[in-house]
Specification:
alpha+beta, 60s Ribosomal Protein L30, Chain: A, Phosphoribosyl-aminoimidazole Synthetase, Chain A, domain 2, 2 domains, six-stranded mixed sheet, four-stranded mixed sheet, binds adenosine-5'-diphosphate, binds magnesium ion
Length: 321
């Protein structure tokens, strides 16, 4: 690398931390967790060609590699506090590093997370963040906490990020406005950290939608030893993004498209009004999209309760036999 490893770290990844005893620059970082709280730890990696297209804007990569980790904190109900970054770069491209670190720090600042260390190596472009958060004992939102009869909620539209991927891979051609809206969802996801914190006392289980709604709701169902009835007609959609597209493609995006980073959570029906009020106060379109039931698997159904034919989309294995 033209720019030495230490100069690179010093220039792009060393900013004064706000809540850290010893940050970037020593052999390891020192942090002081809040007495009485539990630590919540997650990590997520993004690899070029697998998780993002070659040539993706570095600002969005820096933003997103932190965003996907913050989303895991949100899904647990945790307050994120510290992060480490492992970066593998083909070359020390200063314009790229500038954009990447700006994207990362802008989101870190928004949620008051300190970057406290990491590792930098040469190789095919890949990045991995580990995040450390805190939560009050007993308060974490687990996937296993749902009960039969609980409402299923989603914090926003699904499928738009998947549609942007379809556009970039040449499968569809979106009009410019729809593309801009979908690309923003794919490239600059807004982690629902504030919602995750606030919904802690109301929700029984939660997950962030990273792999697709059916799959992720399926995790809640499986770990709660329940089934889930999902009303496809109630799923929120990004306005106009799907206009004119075949129904099968729309459903495929909404149900199986990844990268949305909305929270899907369950809550007792008794908390319905409180969840709705929370949506109003946070200005999030919290939407009730189904119900947990006894049994197993996720059934996607229309407004009359008839299971819809989703077999051609290849995810019939989520249905109860
Ligand atoms: P070591 O040789 O002990 O592994 P390094 O030379 O890898 O140390 O790193 C020096 C310092 O820079 C350490 O504090 C490490 O945590 C930090 N660091 C390295 N890479 C990054 C990065 N991409 N982002 C943030 N901090 C980093
Ligand atoms: Mg190292």
């Amino acid at each position: 690398m033209a720019l030495g490893e230490f100069d690179l770290i010093q220039r792009y990844f060393t900013r004064s931390p706000r809540q850290t005893i010893l940050g970037v620059g020593d052999d390891a970082a020192l942090i002081a967790p809040t007495p009485g709280l539990q630590l919540v730890i997650a990590a997520d990696t993004m690899v070029e060609g697998r998780h993002f297209f070659p040539g993706t804007d570095p600002y969005t990569l820096g933003w997103k590699v932190l965003a996907v980790n913050l989303s895991d904190m949100a899904a647990m109900g945790a307050r994120p506090r510290w992060a480490t970054l492992c970066l593998t770069l083909p070359a020390a491209d200063e314009a790229w590093l500038e954009g990447f670190s700006e994207g990362l720090y802008s989101l870190a600042d928004q949620f008051e997370v300190d970057l406290i260390g990491g590792d930098t190596t040469c190789g095919p472009l890949a990045m991995s963040v580990q995040i450390i958060g805190e939560i009050e004992p007993g308060r974490a939102l687990r996937r296993s906490g749902a009960s039969a009869g609980d409402d299923i909620w989603i914090s926003g539209p699904t499928g738009a990020a998947a549609l942007a991927v379809k556009h970039r891979s040449g499968e569809v051609v979106l009009p410019p406005e729809a593309l801009a809206a979908c690309a923003a969802r794919l490239d600059l996801p807004q982690p629902r950290v504030v919602l995750g914190r606030a919904v802690c006392g109301l929700a029984s289980a939660a997950i962030d939608v990273s792999d697709g709604l059916l799959a992720d709701l399926g995790h809640i169902a499986e770990m709660s030893c329940l089934g889930a009835d999902l009303r496809v007609d109630l799923l929120p959609r990004l306005p106009d993004a799907f206009a004119g597209l075949p129904v099968a493609m729309v459903q495929d995006c909404q149900l199986a498209g990844g990268d949305d980073y909305e929270l899907c959570f369950t809550a007792p029906a008794a908390n319905r009004a409180a969840v709705e009020a929370l949506g109003v106060s946070l200005e999030l379109p919290l939407t009730r999209i189904g119900q947990m039931i006894a049994g197993g698997g996720v059934v996607a159904m229309d407004s009359s309760g008839t299971p819809i034919d989703i077999e051609r989309s290849g995810f019939n294995h989520f249905r109860v036999a």
